Amino acid sequence: MHIVCVVCMHAGGTFALYSLLRQHVNFSGKSVPVPVTRLASDVNLRFHSRKSSQQPRMLAFLEGSSIAQAVITYLVLVGTCMVMGDGALTPSISVLSAVQGIQSRSSSIKQGHVVLLCVVILVILFLFQQYGTSKVGFTFSPIMLVWFALIASTGLYNIIKHYPPILKAISPHYIYLFFARNKRVGWEQFGTVVLCITGVEAMFADLGHFNKKSIQMAYSCLVYPSLILAYAGQAAFLIKNPSKLSTTFYSSVPEPLFWPMFVVATLAAIVASQALISASFSIVRQSVALGCFPRVTMKHTSKKYEGRVYSPEINYFLMIACVLITVGFKGGPEIGQAYGVAVIWVMLITTHLITVVMVIIWQVHYAIAGTFYAIFAAIEGLMTISLLYKIAQGGWVPFAITAFFLIITLSWTYGRSKKHEYEVSNLMDRQDFIKIVNMSNRVPGICIFCTDLMNGIPPIVRHYVQHMGCLRELMVFVTVRHLPVTSVLPEERFLFDRLEPFGVYRCIVQYGYMDTQNMEDHEYVVSIIASLKEIAQSGDEILMMDSALANGTTFVLGRVILNMSPERGNCFKRFVINNLYRFLQKNFRSNISNLKIAPSKTLQVGMQYEI
Hints:
Largest sheet: 6 strands, mixed
CATH class of the largest domain: Mainly Alpha
Number of domains: 2
């Protein structure tokens, strides 16, 4: 029955909870790989959540402990990377489990044929991602409704036909009886239960587009009853047909319903796979926005739903991983073992994070939060331990994928942190900057200098000014700031500061991780100039801005190369900076890649930082 089950709740749960924490907790410790710079204006920033005036003691502890902040951050990074492994495993196991039923129709259909068919379906599924789910999204709900109706009716049929008393299994005391009777074997099978419960909170392709009430009603009135009837029906069938354990699902389907069930199961598997693939795109997008992952291409595929995005780099990685997993394991049970390990680890990490959120943000009483944590952590912890022996039987796959993404994530965050440290310690002196600008010729037009620093003038500016000899009459240092909130209100989008000498400004452009950033270069500049006029102190200053806008714009992009000398750090850190980070920096997108800038308006300035 787990053939189309996919845990969408936990798919984005870890990062959603972390983003919520970053709204309320100042993660500024030096041990945090991705600290958020706080500005004085943040006190007026209307985050899309409310903070109570009575802050719990855990908040003070968390803000004062850089170690605790680092532990939570790294835990989130591990959970996020584990979800990427889940994104590679879910399509494989879902499609494979649905298609395998065809073998029961003919002995001439071998496992190799099933694997080949799965590969074809998976490749088509991933190639279709570039068109977005909106094209066929209207079919998802009917498919799932038919799916639940079929499994519920089939389950009810098997219960009535084979063993009606099976419904007694709903009683929790059978859990104790199961372990008392099976002992070690029961313990080893306990982890396999994960493959059953993964469908309980699933079957919603886009949970973020539904409200809390609709999800609760759909789960309570449709999903849960259907799953109970389906599993109970299969158990009743096995009581009378124990020899058909390996083909329980399709063997329990009445003959006239086989082909309709096969078609709907395959379609439902595709819907379930689509959910995890879409979730992977969304998670990577949020990770990029918070500086936890290198910038990748993000394309919006829906004009109606802002959160629907597509990343070709992530898509093709997942496609290759899915095909390799399917072919490598030849459709064997190892895929199920790997999937169970991935799911339970993400669930365990999510439980830890949600407990922190309950205490700090929701301000649930410590006793209630502690009880919640004890119950769920104990259940998930026991499942995790029972699955340890599955690691050698395919459970290593999600850890391998997690390690791959962790290498990318940690190399990127470490390199960015070292770059930030260098720029902060080598800021250009303001008086020196004023002197150099005054000595340079000012020519008509606008210069948009893109920098990651929100305070001070980065050292690469000195490099630029000294070599250019002339500057535009209007110079704006622009920093794109990604906040750990869903969306930034339009009136909070731009923050401006007037610098010396005349005609030099600083602009901070703020985005939430779900805000659209695709803008034309001219539209971007017009928005900046319109906001600058609001802080203009004279009509001459406004005239200067209009004149500069009419004379064209140049976007200056700083290209910084980090180089760690042999005297600094150990060989491992040098390898990370000089090789891994430099590779990521060279091959991924720039910080203003979302702007559609004409090549003729772009000037790239390179500089090497010796750290």
